[in-house]
Amino acid sequence: MSALAQTDGPARALSLDIRSVSHHYDIAGTRFDVLDDISLSLTPGEFVALLGPSGCGKSTLLRLAAGLEHPRQGTLLEDGNQIEAPDPSRLLVFQDPTLFPWRTVRRNVATGLEARGLLPQRAHRIDEALSLVRLEDFADAYPRQLSGGMAQRVALARALVNDPGLLLLDEPFGKLDSLTRLSLQTEFLRLWQTAGFTALLVTHDVEEALLLAGRIVVLSDRPARVLAEFRITADYPRHRDDPDFVRLRRDILHELGVQSV
Amino acid sequence: MSDLAQTAGDGVVSTSVPSFSIWHQGLVAAVFWLLTAAVTWGLPDVLPWGSAGLFAAITATGGVLLLALALTLHRLGAFGRRIAFWGPWLIAVGVWFLVWEYTTAKTGWLPKPFFSPPHGLLQVYVTDWSRLLLCIGYSLRLWGLGFFSGITVGFTIGVALGWSARFNYWGMPILKLIGPVPATAWIPATFYFFPTTFHASVFLVALSCGIPVAILTAAGVSQVNRAYYDVARTLGANDRFLVLKVAVPAALNHVFVGLFMGLYYSFAVLVVAEMLGAKYGLGWYIAFQSAYSAYANVYATIVIMAILCSGLVKLLFVARDRLLVWQERGLI
Ligand SMILES: Nc1ncnc2c1ncn2[C@@H]1O[C@H](COP(=O)(O)OP(=O)(O)O)[C@@H](O)[C@H]1O
Ligand SMILES: [Mg+2]
């Protein structure tokens, strides 16, 4: 059904191993610990949500996994190979859409293929990716002409067009209004089910994690440590009023130190 | 037409075409243009300037055209609205011609040779047009060679300065040191180092526009949001892609500010360089005519230079709007 399923290079889902990773920044000469001995493994095709309070180091962990920065301690492996530098097999969808404002929607989506010299062979994939996120009609628009939700969908298409084996998502729905968020979450779930990549989704929204992920990893306040893991086996689509859902929600909020109402 | 009549009231510049369909501003403008023609033709010059008849004919033609437009503008649609917009300016120009003509040629209040009536300038174009055309050609050649080589080198250096820390370490202090020095200050040295004054002049023009382009390009490239690089790198971009497809487009706005500054500087330097040692060219023409106190020729040349320069500025604006379509348009 999905265009992604019938492509020349369907995503081969990749595993991710985060082994005893610690990280700190130096701010004005003082050491500022961000990650404290994080270990986490994702099997190919798995959907894991990382849940933690704001500023605990979730984005930092994703930047390390993307290869944009190197950990001070520990290693990160993709399919058994150490992650040294960014690679289009493993894509990061940033917290802000960060579209290139000088490129049309179509050319934003084309960026990855263009950078790797694959545009001639795979130009058709751009239209497929655009229709996947329902933005065919805006292919020639510039980013300033898009709403927040549309921009986030373009960012998603810009990643998906490269057939990543591992998709790292940094609160991609965080800034959207609740209706747009709901429909994008549903769309994204459909994409994951059909394309079969491994997904690591960072969020601070417990319900989002419960609706989408197969496993939820709860992180502590900065410096982030793994506090607990929850496995969710319920079938999709999941419902918020399901008793298991409500119970898990209460347990997770308890882990995060919040008394649920 | 009714929509035009409605909008007339609230516009800053009134472009009204009243319902009884006479364009009032056109009528007023026509009166002043015809008056100018009458004064130019009817009153004798204090000292003869020549071309008075021609100027009278031109202004009279303009006046008659304005009169015709005043009566027919309401039937001309979009074109008419565009003309109507310039109504106040057409009046101002008519008044300006009349006052100018009267205070110079007709009364001598602003005396020869320091001032010239409009038909004095016209006389220069009529009698010396071939030499002026030659000078325009020479000036444009010198300017074109200097400007385009200057901005090419300046842009390349600017990108390198903004991109490479090593290049920046050595280059930026030098650029900051020589940047504020007016290009004309290098004249003695350049005239010594270059084989001909022409080469030296090209270099000075290039220097004058290359420096602002380099500084602003460097500033633009170094201010590019790091997140764009991160996105591009995760998508598989190499350094070449990062420079050409991310840094440069993101910095283009700054580059154009540098280009506008460079355009103005290059014109100033062009004229000075030509005054010093050229055989032809508008700067040379001005220097040559000043020496003979032929100020009408000087004014006539200044008018040409103003038109050339604003034409080139206009071209640069067109280029900018083409390249920066993705931006929100500002007022200019
Ligand atoms: N490049 C950086 N330099 C210094 N400190 C940083 C940098 N990036 C993030 N931090 C700090 O690290 C902490 C964790 O940031 P981040 O990973 O963005 O948190 P989260 O995504 O969980 O909200 C924050 O306190 C932030 O100030
Ligand atoms: Mg974050």
Search tags:
heterodimer; A: 261 residues; alpha/beta; Rossmann fold; six-stranded mixed beta sheet; four-stranded antiparallel beta sheet; 7 helices; 25% strand; disordered N terminus; B: 332 residues; mainly alpha; 2 domains; 13 helices; binds adenosine-5'-diphosphate; binds magnesium ion; MetI-like (chain B); cell membrane (chain B)
Number of separate domains of chain B: 2
- pLDDT averaged over residues of chain A: 89
| CATH class placement of the largest domain in chain B | Mainly Alpha
Helix/strand-derived class of chain B? mainly alpha
- Which sheet architecture does the biggest sheet of chain A show? 6 strands, mixed
Q: Can you identify the CATH superfamily of the largest domain in chain B? A: MetI-like
Q: Give the amount of beta strand of chain B, in percent.
A: under 5%
Count of individual beta strands of chain A: 10
Mean pLDDT of chain B: 89
Distance between the termini of chain A: 41 Å
Main location (chain B): membrane
Membrane topology (chain B): Multi-pass membrane protein
GO cellular component, one term (chain B): plasma membrane
Keywords (chain B): Cell membrane, Membrane, Transmembrane, Transmembrane helix, Transport
Give a verbal description of the structure.
The complex is a heterodimer of chains A (261) and B (332). Chain A is of the alpha/beta class. Chain A has a single domain, classed as P-loop containing nucleotide triphosphate hydrolases (Rossmann fold), CATH 3.40.50. In chain A, 33% of the residues lie in helices and 25% in strands. In chain A, the strands form two sheets. In chain A, strands 6-7-8-3-9-10 form a six-stranded mixed beta sheet, sandwiched between helices. In chain A, β7, α5 and β8 form a beta-alpha-beta unit. The termini of chain A are far apart. Chain B is mainly α. Chain B folds into two domains: 95 residues, no CATH class; 199 residues, Orthogonal Bundle (MetI-like fold). Chain B has 13 helices and no strands. Chain B is flat and about 75 Å long. The relative contact order of chain B is 0.09. The N terminus of chain B is likely disordered. Classes of the chains: A alpha/beta (261), B mainly alpha (332).
